Amino acid sequence: MKIFYTKAALSKNLKTIKPSKKIGLVPTMGALHKGHLSLIEQSIVDNDHTIVSVFVNPTQFDNVSDLKKYPRTLEEDVNLIKSLNSKVFIFAPEAEDLYGGDVVSRKFNFGAIANEMEGKHRKGHFDGVGTVVSLLLKAVKPTHAYFGEKDFQQLQIVRKLVEIEQIDTTIKGCPIVREQNGIALSSRNKRLTQEQFEAATLISQSLKEAKKLFKTTSINKITNHIKAKFNASSHLELEYFEIANVKTLKTASRKRKGNEYRGFIAAFAGEVRLIDNMALN
Ligand code: AMP
To answer: Which residues make up the binding site for beta-alanine (predicted)?
Structure first.
């Protein structure tokens, strides 16, 4: 199992790989779970080499306390990856090394998709994501990079990023992995109390219900119904529920033939912010 802590060490190793070989990159912030492992497994199937980056990116956090409390479990992460496949490389740099100087975001113009949902509620978040993903793609130069639909808006932002920056990497979206009770796996779930964890099932249940209602009920009625359910919850505070067009990510008010829609939720369980989404048609 090889772990690289600097760009220089990674680069030295990458030079030993023949240019004809396929390289898969799986960017993560660590505290790995089965959702991350599904991305790593897909990369192993598709590529000759897989590199998992483990890096808690400070510039994508709009909340200092969230950054401080983000779980950091590198040793466990390494063991988990090792048990999956010992040939996977791990890249776990320090921020100063990855950024090559000041740890600050660049400013991107991702267009309208960056102004919806997460972009609206987490100022500067997508500039931080764009900055770190760009740095990682330039350091690794992978043929493929893997991102979860769990962060659906982020996935669309990354697709836009490679287009804007003309980066020669194919971006692959992978389905959301869920707990048995429906909750989307997330590193942040580790911070939930048992009570909050059980209450958080409302998030995926609401999305499932929205999906069931979608054929027969107006977007407005579904939205009001879901909001009312969150209002009645004593453990969860809804930040947003949106039904949005998959391409534009704009909130939809009416269903239009031929368009695809997803439901998106962000909600707080205490201090822990959880997000989830689901295809509705
Ligand atoms: P994170 O470590 O939270 O930044 O996530 C790293 C990657 O794993 C991102 O592309 C996420 O979308 C993806 N991911 C996180 N949770 C899940 C999940 N439950 N199912 C599938 N992918 C996930």
So the answer is: 60
